Amino acid sequence: MSSDQKTFYIETFGCQMNFHDSEKVVGTLVSQGYSQVQSEQDAGLILYNTCSIRDKAEQKVFLRLAEFRKLQKQGKRFAVLGCVAQQEGEKIFEKAPHVSMVAGSASYRNLPEMLTQIESGSHRVTGLDDRRTDQTFETEFTARGNAHRGYITIIEGCDKFCAYCVVPYTRGKERSRTAESVLREARQMADAGFTDVQLLGQNVNSYKDPSGKMSFAELLRAVGEVEGIKRVRFTTSHPRDFTRDIIEAIDSVPTLCDHVHLPVQSGSSKVLREMFREYSREQYLERIAWMKSTRRPISITSDVIVGFPGETEAEFQQTLTLLDEVQYDGVFSFKYSPRPNTPALKYIDTVPEAEKSRRLQVLMEHQREIQRINYRKHIGQIIEVMVEAENAARAQWIGRTSQNKTLNFSVPAGVQPEIGSYHHVLVTQAFPNSLAGELSAPLNA
Ligand code: SAH
Ligand code: SF4
Ligand code: F3S
């Protein structure tokens, strides 16, 4: 490798928004003449795209920076992007003096200029836009890592200010792209061979078309009608803004997938009020009832926090009964983690760590049992999957269903399904987190 070649390594932590931001950052860097390498050692510029949603997530970047600090002596540069960058700002330069750039997601559209500054030797380049900007990061240079399945950001930021959450402080205010720009990107993806798109936003259904042409449900329909697109997903939905027309769109447009991720956080209306979630248990369950009344088998998943300050045993039990009522197909559950700047920091964190761990354990076991039963209902069904990968060790292929479930399947000897192709699979086995089966019809049938 010649010494004048510009190389970078990037590691991404956190949510799908961060993952997709990294795809845009990679595309931008490549368009600026950089090439991507697979290790810190091989790179001239090392970027970490960070997450600060919980304390453990936040610590990861500082561990990495400490681990690779010695590489600075070889002239390598370090950049911290994402939510820790926005949250900690210039304090990062004090904690880790070998870092040359700190940039939050609201400033990525200025990346080319920031890169030029680094190249010309600046040691403290910042892009810390916080909640001032109303612009989104749109680029033609997105470097998607998968050729069939890809993300499109439709709304950035968050204006909800839930009591426990850093995102409104790290991602800036809510700002949407125009429907026209989203549809243009969806068409370009379809032309490039993508068949599965996922619309992204911290609160994807709070989408507001700046040109006023389309509601979120109308945009969903329009993306679902783009020629060549076979599957449309969207995440994450906020229950407060979850309107009935979203369900009606799913019910009438076949390409919209049978899956809604609708984080509830708690089954207790009192805890929800203290979290500033702006819906009650009853209002949440009303939305679930809408989904269950459709013709489509909509799979529902959620996020839950246990041990929020003041959560009593009885309130925790209400979360368990809510899981029973909804019958989720998947739940991401977390122990409450106090976060900088958030209103919940002022609450007294009454639930001891050991009790938080116990509640988390109880909840996970409870939910596992629900999934064991739910997943078993698929045995005997023939389900369409998109082929995602081969699991050579097990002589199986990994497929994904419209409901976003993993369905591993075997094929007759000599048959080789293509990655990204769609096939029907007969389900023969069920586990709490995946299904298994066999190809139900010969390929090309
Ligand atoms: N915008 C989405 C969620 C984004 S963050 C929504 O409102 O549903 C992903 C999940 O992390 C949240 O749903 C929540 O369950 C969890 N989370 C956020 N802040 C947290 C904190 N301080 N402690 C523990 N879990 C947290
Ligand atoms: Fe965080 Fe609430 Fe915004 Fe979700 S809606 S990102 S939980 S503040
Ligand atoms: Fe983490 Fe920021 Fe996403 S805090 S979860 S990377 S929005």
Brief write-up:
This protein has three domains: 3-127, Rossmann fold (3-Layer(aba) Sandwich), CATH 3.40.50.12160; 149-376, Alpha-Beta Horseshoe (pyruvate-formate lyase- activating enzyme); 382-442, OB fold (Dihydrolipoamide Acetyltransferase, E2P) (Beta Barrel), CATH 2.40.50.
Overview of the structural elements:
The chain folds into three domains: 3-127, Methylthiotransferase, N-terminal domain (Rossmann fold); 149-376, Alpha-Beta Horseshoe (pyruvate-formate lyase- activating enzyme), CATH 3.80.30; 382-442, Beta Barrel (OB fold (Dihydrolipoamide Acetyltransferase, E2P)). It has 13 helices and 19 strands. The protein has helices at 16-31, 55-67, 82-88, 91-95, 111-119, 167-170, 179-191, 216-224, 244-252, 269-274, 281-292, 313-326, 353-376, and strands at residues 7-12, 35-36, 45-50, 77-81, 99-103, 125-127, 149-153, 155-156, 175-176, 196-200, 231-235, 259-261, 299-306, 330-335, 382-391, 396-401, 406-410, 422-430, 434-439. The strands form five sheets. The chain has a six-stranded parallel beta sheet with strand order 2-1-3-4-5-6, sandwiched between helices. Strand 3, helix 2 (55-67) and strand 4 (77-81) form a beta-alpha-beta unit. Helix 12 packs parallel to helix 13 (353-376). It is globular. The mean pLDDT is 95.
